[in-house]
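ingest -> validate -> predict -> emit
validate: passed (alphabet ok, no gaps, 695 aa)
predict: started
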Amino acid sequence: MTADAPGFVPTPHPAWLPDDAFAALGRRRVVVAGDGALAGTVAEEVAAATARFGGSFSRLEVGDGVADADLVLTLATDTDAGSASGTDPDAGEGFRLTREGGAVVVQADGDAGLLHGLFHVVRLGEAAFDGPDADETHAPATGLRMLDHWDNVDTHPVMGQVERGYSGGSLFYEDGVVRADLSRVERYARLLAAVGINRVAINNVNVHRREARLLTDDLGDVVRIAAVFRRWGIRVHLSVSFASPILLGGLSTSDPLDTDVAHWWVRAAARVWSAIPDFGGFVVKADSEGQPGPFAYGRTHADGANMLAAAVEPYDGLIHWRAFVYDHRQDWRDRSTDRARAAYDHFHPLDGAFADNVVVQVKYGPMDFQVREPVSPVLAAMPRTRIALELQVTQEYTGQQRHAVYLGPQWSQILGFSFWSADGGASPTVADLATGRAKAVEDPGTGAWHKPAGGFAAVSNAGDDEFWTGHPFAQANLYAYGRLCWDPTLDPADLLDEWAGLTFPGAPDAVRQALHTVLDGSWETYERYTSPLGVGFMVRPGHHYGPDVDGYEYTPWGTYHFADRDGIGVDRSVRTGTGYAGQYPSPWRETYESTRTCPDELLLFFHHVPYTHVLHSGSTVIQHIYDTHFAGVDAVERMIEAWSAVSPLVDPRLAERVAERFAEQLRSATEWRDQINTYFLRKSGIPDERGRTIY
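emit:
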């Protein structure tokens, strides 16, 4: 069948695992020593690579016949191979790499570590063998490195098959059932394993009636999916409805303190773990945006989570309880109500009340994955609770994978943010709080920290699109997320180099340079031509794509900018506003409280100010709006110019897709510029001091 024939489905793009990425390994003499399911996966990878590139491969018992090998991948006989993961729930993921005279040995104390060690060698390429003698230990920062898929078994009439998905249909479901052919899922699992992801939730957190049945009638199909991911060291989770005892069990209540409800969940957990012994646990969105929860029965979120936790505890299962809880039916006239406050108000009083196997999953900001918002104070407010930082790899509010926006720099800033020091200092970072590495750090608010380990979770951006992520460059976000979960201190620019080197092996250096030109500053570029100074949203309701300044302004959703003829922004100060700034510990409480000290990029999130207010940059608010929106479009034009110069050097299908996406990005950025600038010119009556065209 030709590429133009009806029904033709292109082979999925290899992303960061094309055959040539294995060339350095494949040309050498390689030994894999040790048993275990993942050791078998490693052996298959090595056998394929050496057959392709002319090397040799041997599968041996531990320690036998490895003297003449260039690379040995072996299970260790002691605990020196990277068990520094410590409190991680998934043991044996670390590894030790030694290099002497160009010969490399990777030792792991578990076969998961052997798999991660293999992909580390693949990332290094020739540098794995040509570097100086070395003895390195590698281990993940946390054992919980998860992707949440928002896939629906049945195509939703409004949200489609993948809610907030911009990469085609679901990898798992087709025509209302789990796919018969899971070969594409196998390729996806391999990609995830290569960047260190070790858990996936396979259905939408908004659990509809059809999807609820994955827990019961369709459990056999979940078993099939889990078997695919298991070969790559990845555990499967399900999103479940808190009302499952009603939807599936015929009970009249889902009250977490009702004995029959608790027993229903005990039986449900027993069925699941009997079928999938390494099942990970349940993800729950409750009392949020119409999803049922414990509030209906006068119970707390700790009551709800702990009831489920007791049901899964015999199997070392986890309950991921999302902290995205707020009133989505608020009165826009009431300025005392503040959606930003909601998660802290609901969850801070419950610190210490959650069971040990509950992980409270907290969005990185208090609103909803905006291009710029402050780091959520909930992350600092629950020292006795396991916290998972939740990010959004799918670009709901950052261009929906039609725009080239590399989010690695944003995530790196969030991970490195310190709540108790304006300049970092010795206080714990967000990454420390999520991984449990903030132990013994003094904090004026709570004394000595004894932070339990949590982890990382993010909404996936993958689908059945030829390029996995719609925009080929959005692959870099999935890659960077996995690598930052493994090590939150990695430099996002270095990760972009890694991704480019693997994805375009052998390409001229000009391709890598162009990718940096396009992507290094792309997050800030998107911010420039969309919502200014942290005010957020200003998007078209429903699909959230494209500008609509007042789209949510008079709605119940709590996403307001309060622009009038005199100024713009939301007063969240303690002295005159909603008090949200007071949810932060010092020094950020004081920093955000005052317009004199609030960072420019968050000014309108925390304060309502006149258009003539002078920023720290020296510009007025209104002139900043005009200047940045013109500059954002100019930056997109430069991105296109840089990529166009090298696009003939890459695969034509990829080049064609990128060109199509860039055309849309430029169109959309221009529309954002003209609508935002025109709106604020008409609202303020203050002209652009540079005399540029505003409509």
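The two ends are 51 Å apart (CA to CA).
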